[in-house]
Input
Amino acid sequence: MTTEMKSEDQQKEAEQMQNVLLLLNHLVENEETTLKLIIDCLYEVGTVNLINQKIAGDRQNRIARTFAGMSKPAAKALALRWFKKNCPELIVKWLRSKVSFKPTKAPKAAPPKTEVLSSQEGQSDLPFKSAAPRSQIQEIRQLRSQVRVLSGLLLCTMTALGGTAMWQVYQVGVESSTAQPELRPVTTFPSERQLR
Output
């Protein structure tokens, strides 16, 4: 195969993948309602699984689920925006990788041994090549612990804000129920019969 034919094939491939990208963008714009429903389902499943994994107590779990429900509209809007911006391109890249049919090379040697870095809370295990420096593994563990701390702080902040809002609503209700209505003297005008 000549280089001229290869370059023509590559140009045709690029054009076709651009067409796929345009079609996916069109699909995303026309099926926005379907995307919203998909995002809604994924949000429900994801928040429940995340809350169950991160929060042990039943009461805290229920409170976190309540806050997750309150933040759902904003999260759905952000997810839809992100999906429209990023997913068509990601899907095109993935599809291109599936139809490229790159030749696979036969393995020359046995694959390197891997060690598994697992977190203390049962998060997904990440395989690392044994040649990876220990400093990277320690850095990943440190980042995971920072994420846990930040997640806890976020939960505490959301709980405090929710408690403050509930307290304000309670106070307004108490003040409105204990406030005495202002009494005004009622002046009556004599009727026509009384004047005669």
